[in-house]
Specification:
Layout (H helix, E strand, L loop, with lengths): L4 H15 L11 H8 L4 E6 L6 E9 L3 H7 L3 H4 L6 E9 L5 E8 L8 E10 L3 E9 L3 E11 L2 E11 L6 H36 L2
Antiparallel strand pairs: 1-2, 2-8, 3-4, 4-5, 5-6, 6-7, 7-8
């Protein structure tokens, strides 16, 4: 059955209070950040160079969906188009027999702002727990990071770290926009997609009785 919004919020609040001191994606939430996350915000920390075109970003948010649903929503190319900004191509080039290691190709199109970016990354996946990724070929100088999924009541505390260094032909203003606007939008769209998937699965379970 679908948990009511008040009960869901209470469960997530309790779980976050218990989990906020645990390290994940190599950073810990401060009490103030935990409070913001519990209030529905996406907390983002950025450590960038003076031009703000390269650096490391860490983020955390609560998602009203189970870790399994969040993980599965992030494990299929068809879903990636729903939350990755400007994504035009997503293709699994190869994968291990158990699906835990994949080589995935992405192509991102910013329109007339810059040439298309193409890259292949390796994804190391632990179902329901984490996805680590690292570019193995392509246009970025550095593109690597980690997603971690932590149970939080009936939902998930999602933590994220990414280190990016775009190619030199990407304008500074566009690189800055990736950190300031595109990343928050991606996280918000990802949460919306995962929560919609959770509702669909709950409704399917109800209709099967």
């Amino acid at each position: 059955m679908v948990m009511g919004s008040t009960r869901m919020a209470a469960a997530l609040s309790l779980a976050l209070a218990c989990a906020s001191g645990l390290p994940a994606a190599d950073f810990e939430l401060t009490p103030a950040e935990s409070q913001r996350v519990n209030g529905g915000e996406v907390v983002i920390r950025a450590t960038l160079d003076p031009s703000q075109r390269r650096g490391t970003v860490r983020a955390a948010m609560l998602v009203a969906a189970s870790p399994e649903v969040v993980f599965q929503s992030m494990s299929h190319c068809a879903d990636a188009f729903k939350y990755v900004p400007h994504l035009r191509t997503c293709r699994v080039r190869s994968q291990s027999p158990d699906g835990g290691e994949r080589l995935v190709e992405h192509e991102v199109d910013f329109g007339w702002y810059a040439p298309r970016l193409r890259y292949v990354f390796r994804a190391d996946m632990v179902p329901g727990r984490s996805i680590a990724f690292r570019q193995v070929s392509g246009d970025f100088k550095i593109n690597e990071g980690l997603w971690e999924f932590e149970p939080a009541g009936a939902g998930t505390l999602l933590r994220y770290r990414v280190q990016l260094d775009p190619p030199g032909y990407v304008p500074n203003w566009l690189a800055r926009s990736t950190f300031k606007r595109e990343l928050p939008k991606m996280l918000a769209d990802l949460r919306r997609h995962c929560e919609a998937e959770q509702v669909l699965r709950a409704q399917a379970n109800i209709s099967s009785y």
